[in-house]
């Protein structure tokens, strides 16, 4: 036997290029077929079917179901109708809809059937649609930067913002990194500041899923470290791993406490905890400021701050962009939609809700300004803890109709589509 042929046979038999599977699999998508998938027999089935038609009149030709070819798409894009698997082809559906519709009323009837795997107005292939939350700051009137002395005020600092704000490099010791955070706090916010860190728990919820989604572009392995050890990965990659942050925070809290800086660990929603801490301090101190970048903080602050209080919020500057300072008293007095701010933020997209396709924060703000009375009526239903789903559902539908500028006499979202 030829040694070359023998070697080739040995290699090809012991190291096959493809995994042996009992079912058909797409090399491009990885979709695995089932026992009924027979697209690889299309030529054979088609030839056999055509031969069976020879000698028959056209009017007498009937196609047998056993001669139907089921492609791999039938695994993920098929529905059951009368015990029969029917592949859903979006192009064919669109063509037939276009041909058969006689008026807009027919389209409304067609859209009663949910054929999309998820609501496209709220979700995409990656999950919830996201909006640029920070654009909401543009709707808020600012205060002068000279109005508050941060060295003498009580400053509540978002620990999540702080972790990324202070920059450190590969090669630094963790003890030195902790000192950098302490120096930054004392320099900018004084020793009276309070730093609140997110607990970064393991509970599965929408907000935790959003935090994980943001960290998918930068990854890091779990790192067990002590103060004397040296950082071996870049800061953003290190902080993208929640378990690394969970290990770093106790070191930071210990170092801050030893320098007279109060720290707290938020249980549950950190944003709400930070705002409530600021409200608590405002009862005993004339000037309180909340420091952070997340617009969720100022939204919650506007909603929860008593009318008689005046708490400041600062979004620190970055590069040539100056810091922005806001007063709750000014915001509550000048924003016509202040009482409905939570509803506005939720329907225009936040950490726990989807943004609506092609509907920005700015357009939603304009809607609330122009239709304030209707928005307040809808907000009352959502804000009422005793509201039932029967009341919330039509209120939500009215909200969507308003967002999509439906006529005043239109009460059905499906018809408006």
UniProtKB/TrEMBL annotation:
Domain of life: Eukaryota
InterPro entries: PIN-like_dom_sf
Entry protein name: Uncharacterized protein
């Amino acid at each position: 036997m030829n040694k070359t042929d023998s070697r080739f046979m040995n290699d090809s038999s012991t190291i096959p290029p493809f995994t042996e599977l009992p079912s058909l699999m797409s090399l491009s998508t990885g979709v695995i077929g089932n026992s009924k998938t027979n697209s690889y027999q299309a030529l054979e089935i088609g030839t056999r079917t055509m031969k069976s038609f020879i000698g028959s009149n056209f009017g007498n030709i009937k196609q047998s179901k056993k001669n139907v070819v089921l492609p791999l798409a039938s695994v993920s894009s098929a529905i059951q109708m009368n015990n029969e698997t029917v592949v859903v082809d979006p192009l064919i559906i669109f063509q037939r809809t276009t041909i058969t519709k006689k008026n807009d009323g027919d389209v409304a009837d067609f859209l009663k059937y949910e054929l999309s795997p998820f609501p496209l107005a709220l979700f995409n292939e990656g999950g919830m649609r996201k909006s640029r939350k920070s654009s909401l700051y543009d709707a808020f009137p600012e205060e002068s930067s000279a109005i508050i002395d941060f060295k003498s005020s009580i400053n509540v600092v978002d620990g999540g913002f702080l972790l990324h704000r202070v920059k450190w490099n590969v090669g630094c010791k963790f003890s030195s990194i902790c000192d950098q955070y302490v120096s930054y706090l004392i320099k900018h916010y004084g020793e009276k500041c309070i730093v609140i860190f997110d607990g970064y728990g393991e509970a599965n919820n929408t907000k935790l899923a959003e935090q994980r989604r943001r960290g998918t572009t930068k990854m890091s392995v779990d790192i067990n470290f002590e103060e004397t050890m040296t950082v071996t990965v870049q800061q953003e990659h290190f902080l993208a791993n929640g378990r690394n942050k969970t290990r770093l925070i106790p070191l930071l809290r210990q170092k801050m406490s030893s320098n007279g800086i109060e720290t707290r660990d938020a249980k549950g929603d950190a944003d709400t905890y930070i705002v409530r801490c600021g409200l608590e301090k405002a009862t005993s101190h004339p000037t309180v400021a909340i420091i952070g970048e997340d617009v969720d903080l100022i939204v919650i602050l506007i909603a929860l701050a008593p009318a008689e209080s005046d708490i400041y919020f600062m979004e620190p500057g970055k590069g040539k962009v100056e810091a922005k300072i806001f007063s709750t008293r000014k915001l509550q007095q000048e924003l016509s939609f202040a009482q409905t701010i939570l509803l506005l933020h939720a329907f225009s997209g936040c950490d726990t809700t989807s943004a609506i396709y092609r509907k920005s924060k700015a357009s939603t703000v304009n809607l609330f300004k122009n239709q304030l009375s209707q928005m307040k009526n809808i907000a009352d239903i959502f804000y009422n803890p005793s509201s039932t789903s029967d009341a919330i559902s039509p209120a939500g539908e009215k909200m969507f109709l308003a967002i999509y500028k439906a006529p005043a006499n239109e009460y059905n979202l499906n018809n408006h589509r």
